[in-house]
Amino acid sequence: MAQLLELEEDQIIRAMKELGFTVSDARVYLALLGTHPATGYELAASSGVPRSAIYNVLRRLDKLGLVNSINEKPARYVPLSPQNLVQLIESRFSRTVEDLKSSLESLSARAPEVATWTSRGYTAMLDRARDLITGAEKTVFAALWKREAEQLTTPFRQALAAGVEVVIFSFNRLPDDIGETLCYGIAEDKLEKYWRHKVIIISDQQRALIGGADQSNDNRSVVTEESSLVEMAISNLVLDITLFGQRTERDLSKIITGLTSHLAPIEDLVSEALDNS
To answer: HEC profile for the chain?
Structure first.
């Protein structure tokens, strides 16, 4: 039980740090939840925060609205209830996000458009992939490995539920409930002997995520709205799907037509040029 409580406290401290509080803030607040009202001396002993720092922490928490003093000589403190703390944080962050949104929108007219930006790290790549998939309005085309497909199962299903067409190519076997899957069924460990993981995701034929899918902080990928790069990603995917259709003797012309609908009708233009030569 003691280990379980310690684990829960560690989780709370990590969460509060992510919300902008210090470790000392979190420890004092948790100590006060355990026993209150309490003096600064008592809280220093129960929280592990040095007595030389405890009153600075309490003044900061008082200013933030997390604690309140109810006596003087010696001052004793009581904590804001967890329910009210959550409401307070939600309210403050909501206002902060709205203020940030307003400020960013006022700057957007002056900021230059950036058509391509780089993400570093595996987690960042997955976050951008989720944004791309859930932000699609009509179509999502993708080429990826089983490991990444499983990480993106939820956004793929959300896109399907929103009426978005989802087509995914993979050399591995993928789940059947994340869209129309075109898979060879090669085991990942066999393929990893020759290739590294990579990913292509194309949203509404206007935005693309292209890059590696290594599980490391050094992994690099790009998200782009640059038409030439999006077209290159589409061409790569068209080649994979065309070869898949030939090898499996499946007619995938409808998928390829949908994927290339906004590109130049190159087959028609080539046929016309050859006929006129």
So the answer is: CHHHHHHHHHHHHHHHHHCCCCHHHHHHHHHHHHCCCEEHHHHHHHHCCCHHHHHHHHHHHHHHCCEEECCCCCCEEEECCHHHHHHHHHHHHHHHHHHHHHHHHHHHCCCCCCCEEEEECHHHHHHHHHHHHHCCCCEEEEECCHHHHHHCHHHHHHHHHCCCEEEEEECCCCCHHHCEEEECCCCHHHHCCCCCCEEEEEECCCEEEEEECCCCCCCEEEEECCHHHHHHHHHHHHHHHHHHHHHHCCCCHHHHHHHCCCCCCHHHHHHHHHHHC
